[in-house]
Predict the structure.
Amino acid sequence: DTIERALNALRRDSPQKAWYLLEGPTRPDAYIVTDDTVIVVEGKRTEAGPTVKTTWMPGRHQMLRHIDCAWESRGHRTVYGFFIVEGASDHDPSALDVPPHWIQAAKTTISGDALASSLPHRGPDEQAEIARCFLGVTTWQTLCATFDIPWSALPSTVS
């Protein structure tokens, strides 16, 4: 009964604080919604890796938290999530390669341990479906090259 009340309250309202909220709202750097897709993007410029904990839950991966929240409100839409990071040679507009530590971070994000620690409220099937929503990681340099955005147009840090 308590779980059902909490789930109904979450689906009906989105207050900042309430008895059934265990952590604050998630804030991806980009949240794009179309008729058939929800995309969550976490941009990193200076961080060495993704955030993998919250105050409430050590081991709660930031990207999985973003996807989990989008998953809950997706309706009929397909959910995707990915990181955008600084290329292998920092601040070099031609450095399109994803740094090895970010490739490893992407693999870790959808590991069994990360899924279990980030999504304990989801069963194995839902955890696997959410893992499939994660596309991985690309670079700011690739983004600029793909969309013909001048490298100089990017700020030195993204907040």
In short: Residues 2-12 form the longest helix (11 residues).
